[in-house]
Amino acid sequence: MKINFGCGNRHIEGFLNVDKVPECNPDQVVDMEIFPWPIADNSVEEVKLIHVLEHVGATTDCHMQIIQELYRICRPGAEVQIIVPHPRSENYLGDPTHVRPVSAELFNLYSKSFCEQAIAKGWASTPLALYWKVDFSIKKITHHLMPLWLERYNNKQISDSDITFAVNTYNNVVNEIEIELVINK
Question: What is the Cα–Cα distance from 66 to 54, expressed in whole angstroms?
Protein backbone atom coordinates (compact mmCIF):
# COMPACT_ATOMS: atom_id res chain seq x y z
CA MET A 1 0.00 0.00 0.00
CA LYS A 2 1.10 3.57 -0.74
CA ILE A 3 -0.41 6.51 1.17
CA ASN A 4 -0.58 10.20 0.33
CA PHE A 5 -1.38 11.75 3.73
CA GLY A 6 -3.00 15.17 3.84
CA CYS A 7 -3.75 14.93 0.14
CA GLY A 8 -6.03 17.96 0.00
CA ASN A 9 -6.85 18.44 -3.67
CA ARG A 10 -3.52 16.85 -4.72
CA HIS A 11 -4.55 13.25 -5.36
CA ILE A 12 -1.79 10.92 -6.56
CA GLU A 13 -2.53 7.98 -8.84
CA GLY A 14 -1.64 4.63 -7.27
CA PHE A 15 -1.77 6.00 -3.71
CA LEU A 16 -4.48 5.87 -1.06
CA ASN A 17 -5.24 9.59 -0.82
CA VAL A 18 -6.03 10.42 2.80
CA ASP A 19 -7.18 13.67 4.41
CA LYS A 20 -9.24 14.75 7.41
CA VAL A 21 -11.31 17.14 5.25
CA PRO A 22 -14.12 15.29 3.44
CA GLU A 23 -14.63 18.22 1.04
CA CYS A 24 -11.39 17.42 -0.78
CA ASN A 25 -12.79 13.97 -1.69
CA PRO A 26 -10.05 11.77 -0.23
CA ASP A 27 -10.18 8.01 -0.71
CA GLN A 28 -10.31 7.76 3.09
CA VAL A 29 -11.02 10.37 5.76
CA VAL A 30 -8.39 10.15 8.51
CA ASP A 31 -7.43 12.75 11.11
CA MET A 32 -3.70 12.25 11.71
CA GLU A 33 -4.13 13.60 15.25
CA ILE A 34 -6.55 10.85 16.31
CA PHE A 35 -4.81 7.64 17.33
CA PRO A 36 -4.40 4.89 16.39
CA TRP A 37 -4.75 5.44 12.67
CA PRO A 38 -7.09 2.98 10.91
CA ILE A 39 -4.18 1.40 9.02
CA ALA A 40 -2.67 -2.02 9.70
CA ASP A 41 0.81 -2.49 11.16
CA ASN A 42 3.63 -2.91 8.63
CA SER A 43 1.27 -2.51 5.67
CA VAL A 44 2.65 0.57 3.92
CA GLU A 45 5.56 0.60 1.46
CA GLU A 46 5.58 4.30 0.62
CA VAL A 47 4.26 7.47 2.26
CA LYS A 48 4.03 11.02 0.96
CA LEU A 49 3.60 13.90 3.40
CA ILE A 50 3.59 16.95 1.14
CA HIS A 51 3.00 20.14 3.11
CA VAL A 52 1.42 18.21 5.97
CA LEU A 53 3.75 17.89 8.98
CA GLU A 54 3.86 21.63 9.61
CA HIS A 55 0.05 21.54 10.10
CA VAL A 56 -0.12 18.74 12.71
CA GLY A 57 1.43 17.79 16.02
CA ALA A 58 1.49 21.15 17.78
CA THR A 59 2.18 19.51 21.14
CA THR A 60 5.16 17.26 21.75
CA ASP A 61 2.87 14.36 22.74
CA CYS A 62 0.80 14.66 19.56
CA HIS A 63 3.93 14.96 17.40
CA MET A 64 5.39 11.89 19.10
CA GLN A 65 2.25 9.87 18.39
CA ILE A 66 2.28 10.93 14.73
CA ILE A 67 5.90 9.79 14.37
CA GLN A 68 5.16 6.53 16.19
CA GLU A 69 2.07 5.85 14.06
CA LEU A 70 4.01 6.55 10.88
CA TYR A 71 6.64 4.06 12.03
CA ARG A 72 4.00 1.49 13.05
CA ILE A 73 2.15 1.42 9.73
CA CYS A 74 5.30 1.30 7.58
CA ARG A 75 6.91 -2.00 6.72
CA PRO A 76 10.68 -2.48 6.92
CA GLY A 77 12.41 -0.53 4.16
CA ALA A 78 9.38 1.65 3.47
CA GLU A 79 10.17 5.06 2.01
CA VAL A 80 8.74 8.32 3.31
CA GLN A 81 8.85 11.57 1.34
CA ILE A 82 8.32 14.75 3.34
CA ILE A 83 8.08 18.23 1.86
CA VAL A 84 7.68 21.17 4.22
CA PRO A 85 8.21 24.90 4.02
CA HIS A 86 11.54 25.98 5.47
CA PRO A 87 10.85 27.22 9.02
CA ARG A 88 12.59 30.53 8.27
CA SER A 89 10.61 31.32 5.14
CA GLU A 90 7.54 33.47 4.74
CA ASN A 91 5.85 30.35 3.37
CA TYR A 92 6.07 28.91 6.88
CA LEU A 93 5.85 32.08 8.97
CA GLY A 94 2.97 33.63 7.04
CA ASP A 95 0.46 30.80 7.45
CA PRO A 96 -1.50 30.75 10.72
CA THR A 97 -2.32 27.05 10.24
CA HIS A 98 1.34 26.09 10.57
CA VAL A 99 1.81 24.77 14.10
CA ARG A 100 5.19 22.97 14.00
CA PRO A 101 8.44 24.00 12.32
CA VAL A 102 10.10 21.02 10.65
CA SER A 103 13.78 20.93 9.79
CA ALA A 104 15.80 18.20 8.13
CA GLU A 105 17.94 17.93 11.25
CA LEU A 106 14.86 16.96 13.28
CA PHE A 107 14.85 13.56 11.59
CA ASN A 108 18.33 12.74 12.92
CA LEU A 109 16.64 12.47 16.32
CA TYR A 110 14.48 9.63 14.96
CA SER A 111 17.53 7.57 13.92
CA LYS A 112 18.76 5.00 16.45
CA SER A 113 22.32 5.09 15.08
CA PHE A 114 22.45 8.90 15.29
CA CYS A 115 21.05 8.84 18.84
CA GLU A 116 23.53 6.18 19.96
CA GLN A 117 26.38 8.22 18.44
CA ALA A 118 25.09 11.38 20.15
CA ILE A 119 25.04 9.63 23.52
CA ALA A 120 28.53 8.19 23.02
CA LYS A 121 29.94 11.61 22.10
CA GLY A 122 28.02 13.51 24.78
CA TRP A 123 26.11 15.68 22.32
CA ALA A 124 23.18 17.71 23.61
CA SER A 125 20.64 15.86 21.44
CA THR A 126 17.51 14.23 22.83
CA PRO A 127 17.65 10.57 21.71
CA LEU A 128 14.03 10.45 20.59
CA ALA A 129 14.48 7.30 18.48
CA LEU A 130 15.39 5.41 21.63
CA TYR A 131 12.67 6.98 23.78
CA TRP A 132 9.93 6.69 21.15
CA LYS A 133 11.05 3.29 19.79
CA VAL A 134 11.32 4.38 16.15
CA ASP A 135 14.15 4.18 13.64
CA PHE A 136 14.26 6.29 10.48
CA SER A 137 17.29 6.84 8.24
CA ILE A 138 17.69 9.97 6.18
CA LYS A 139 18.21 8.93 2.56
CA LYS A 140 18.34 12.39 1.02
CA ILE A 141 17.76 16.04 1.93
CA THR A 142 17.08 18.69 -0.70
CA HIS A 143 16.78 22.39 0.03
CA HIS A 144 14.76 24.18 -2.65
CA LEU A 145 15.98 27.77 -2.84
CA MET A 146 13.76 30.81 -3.17
CA PRO A 147 13.71 32.10 -6.77
CA LEU A 148 16.01 35.07 -6.12
CA TRP A 149 18.68 32.89 -4.49
CA LEU A 150 18.28 30.12 -7.06
CA GLU A 151 18.75 32.58 -9.94
CA ARG A 152 21.88 34.05 -8.34
CA TYR A 153 23.24 30.56 -7.69
CA ASN A 154 22.49 29.31 -11.21
CA ASN A 155 24.14 32.42 -12.68
CA LYS A 156 27.25 31.65 -10.59
CA GLN A 157 26.93 34.95 -8.74
CA ILE A 158 27.12 33.05 -5.45
CA SER A 159 28.87 29.82 -4.42
CA ASP A 160 27.88 26.80 -2.35
CA SER A 161 29.57 28.35 0.67
CA ASP A 162 27.63 31.60 0.07
CA ILE A 163 24.40 29.59 0.08
CA THR A 164 25.38 27.76 3.26
CA PHE A 165 26.18 31.06 4.94
CA ALA A 166 22.91 32.62 3.74
CA VAL A 167 20.79 29.64 4.88
CA ASN A 168 22.36 29.81 8.34
CA THR A 169 22.06 33.59 8.58
CA TYR A 170 19.02 34.92 6.71
CA ASN A 171 15.33 34.24 6.33
CA ASN A 172 13.74 33.47 2.96
CA VAL A 173 16.73 31.72 1.39
CA VAL A 174 15.18 28.24 1.28
CA ASN A 175 11.58 27.88 0.18
CA GLU A 176 11.02 24.18 0.91
CA ILE A 177 12.85 21.24 2.39
CA GLU A 178 12.39 17.80 0.85
CA ILE A 179 13.36 14.89 3.09
CA GLU A 180 13.48 11.27 1.98
CA LEU A 181 13.47 8.70 4.78
CA VAL A 182 13.74 4.93 5.02
CA ILE A 183 12.11 2.88 7.78
CA ASN A 184 14.45 0.57 9.71
CA LYS A 185 12.82 -2.37 11.50
Answer: 12
